Amino acid sequence: MKVAIIGKERELIEEKLSEFGLESDKKNPDVVISFGGDGTALYGERVYPGIPRIMVKHSKFCVKSKEDDYSEVLNSLREKKYKIKEEMKVEVIVNDDSTKKLIGLNEVGIHHKIPTKALRLKIMINGKNIEDEQISDGFIVATPYGSTAYFYSICRKKFSKGLGIAFKNPKSGTRSMILDENKFNEDSIDNSQFQML
Known about the structure:
Elements: E1 2-6, H1 11-14, E2 23-24, E3 31-36, H2 38-47, E4 53-57, H3 71-78, E5 90-94, E6 97-104, E7 107-111, E8 119-125, E9 128-136, E10 138-142, H4 150-155, E11 163-168, E12 176-179, H5 186-190, E13 192-196
Parallel strand pairs: 1-2, 1-3, 3-4
Antiparallel strand pairs: 5-6, 7-10, 8-9, 8-13, 10-11, 11-12
């Protein structure tokens, strides 16, 4: 199995790969080991999008793996004793232009280019108005994976299904909403529109 390792102290794991019959491969890995905190995991998704990733916490700011012994992780890879859990990503296309595309594992954020100005937004799903007008500093569209991060810091809510929308410093109206995937089918979530007024 080919493994890419990302993180500041990745050599701590890289030097053990051969002991477990694993090969270091930064160009075409089968799996990525993210060695650090949440920021390292997000970086890993940017560098290796869609490649299965193992998060090994190694930072003074997060819970560390048990006594820094990575043998169990590497042995599980060798023995193929693991399950892959897929996470939803959010994709934003600006003005139907696929060259202006943003993809986020946690969230995608939209802000005004000029910090002293606010955004005026209209929110529609399949042509149905969800919010007539919202004035705010910007907004984020978050996945369940990201609901405990920036989304939570804005509105103090978490969710496990659907997509979350949180407005930063809204003048009035809705501060946040969660698009329920049982209420909106996949097509309707795919066709969510945020129109700048």
